[in-house]
Design a protein that fits this description.
Blueprint lengths: L1 H44 L6 E4 L6 E3 L5 E4 L7 H14 L7 H10 L3 H14 L3 H16 L1
Parallel strand pairs: 1-3
Antiparallel strand pairs: 2-3
Helix pairs in contact: 1-2, 2-3
The structure holds zinc ion.
Length: 148
């Protein structure tokens, strides 16, 4: 009984540390990508934010606070680029429209005309979970589909 419990705890902590390692190793890459794409889309929107944080979040891809702080999941770098772009534009537009009303979606549509399709694709990915392995597999599938 005691040994069994100990083994279980050890296994769990090892998995946690490998996930943390992946985050530490990719955080700066995620920050660079996010800042570059924010700057790109903000040429159109011309909005102002306070600061950008890259986090290791379990479920959430991004968020925008009323203090104009933008938070993004570092796993954006594992998403197909057109979906990462959608997440970035979504949070960028929240700087102007903090709700999901029509004005918000009109704003998103200005740079992502096919946003509805991308929302559906992200919902499908969310159902599979955000594990590194699953996301890497999905990205490869999208790449293959884009080439054919
Ligand atoms: Zn939103």
């Amino acid at each position: 009984m005691f040994r069994f419990r100990r083994r279980k705890v050890r296994r769990r902590s090892r998995r946690t540390s490998s996930v943390t390692k992946h985050y530490v190793e990719h955080k700066e890459e995620a920050r660079e990508l996010t800042l570059a794409r924010l700057a790109h889309f903000n040429q159109h929107y011309g909005l102002k934010w306070n600061r950008v944080a890259i986090r290791n979040q379990r479920r959430c891809w991004g968020s925008c606070t009323s203090l104009k702080n933008l938070n993004f999941n570092y796993k954006l770098i594992l998403l197909p680029p057109h979906l990462a772009d959608y997440i970035i534009v979504h949070e960028l537009c929240h700087l102007k429209e903090l709700n999901h009303g029509k004005a918000f979606w009109d704003l998103v549509e200005e740079t992502i005309p096919d946003y509805k399709e991308r929302v559906a694709q992200i919902k499908a990915i969310d159902k599979l979970g955000h594990s590194i392995q699953v996301l890497e597999k999905i990205s490869i599938e999208y790449e293959k589909a884009a080439k054919s």
